[in-house]
Amino acid sequence: ATQRWFSGVLLTEDAQADLVLANADTVDAAVDITIFGPDGRINAPGSRGIVVEAHSARSVPLSVLATVEEPVSLLVESSAGRVAATLRQRLWQGTTPLGSDWVPPAVAPATELVLPGIVDGEGDRQLVVTNPGERTASVAVELLGQDGRSAVPGAAQLDIPPGTTRSLELSPGLAGQAAGLRLVSEQPIVAGLRQTSAADPAAQDPAWTAALPALDADGRWPVPAGAKAAIALLLSNPADTDAEVEVTVGNELGGEGTASRQSVPAGSTVSVPVPSAKTAWVRVRSDRTAVRGALQVTESLGGVASLALVPLITPSGQSVEVPPVVFDPQAGR
């Protein structure tokens, strides 16, 4: 694509962020990075005209471009050509690693956004909202909880000046429940959420979610987990009417999988447990509802409460034949 947004990126002294750019086209691409910080756009030397040669990929260390104490949002644009952009975040405490994860791209600026994938339990839940426009944005924050719609204590309304990013800790008002968020603004905004899996820094693992588009009629995703992990499908419905989806759990032996119907009440979030022993993929079918979703994977590894989130994004309007998916414990090592 020619544009990608990433929200909730950390560029502090104890954080490392790397933007990975891949160019599959036959012509070179030129990429510009705009950083929206708490005091406005940040002048970052070296952030304009980054060349990605044809049929190649390169990694851009963002921490050398700027150091900011608060979370920021990034606009990655191609002034020539197209690129695929992903962002990897690593966190440290001195020389001790505190975990790493991929920051999912957020949808383009809009006046209504939905963020699924807020996990249950302890830890930070930091909402990050950016106003890229020229006028102040007044943002209403609505919680899509397990019992329906409600306000988040202390975060019902946010005023965000032009060109700035604001962050707000939501964990005191969430009471440890799995949820989603619906944001409504007079001006187009971008939003993401950074969370951790535990209150103790020595045991926590970070994960990011972002404002996502609604699920298309059919989508299938691999499950990146072993037999000891706990897996849940988090589905948020911002609409005023209930939604029905079909969830199919497939195993590594192939076949059609096991299907079940799941109701997602209006204005709420449901957590659907997924058997982990031999689950290789999850498929979600719907009648083009407003439902958003994320796949939550947790596991205790060496005293760390490991956490991963897979945003459920479908290629809207396309019919894709998905090849068989199997679990490979050596993948990514």
Topology:
Elements: E1 3-9, E2 15-23, E3 29-37, E4 40-42, E5 50-52, E6 56-61, E7 72-80, E8 84-93, E9 96-103, E10 110-118, E11 125-131, E12 137-145, E13 148-151, E14 157-160, E15 164-169, H1 171-174, E16 179-196, E17 206-210, E18 218-222, E19 230-237, E20 243-251, E21 258-264, E22 268-274, E23 279-286, E24 292-301, E25 304-311
Antiparallel strand pairs: 1-7, 2-6, 2-8, 3-4, 3-5, 3-7, 8-9, 10-16, 11-15, 11-16, 12-13, 12-14, 12-16, 16-17, 18-23, 19-22, 19-24, 20-21, 20-23, 24-25
Quick summary:
With 333 residues, this protein is mostly beta strands. It has one helix spanning 171-174; strands spanning 3-9, 15-23, 29-37, 40-42, 50-52, 56-61, 72-80, 84-93, 96-103, 110-118, 125-131, 137-145, 148-151, 157-160, 164-169, 179-196, 206-210, 218-222, 230-237, 243-251, 258-264, 268-274, 279-286, 292-301, 304-311.
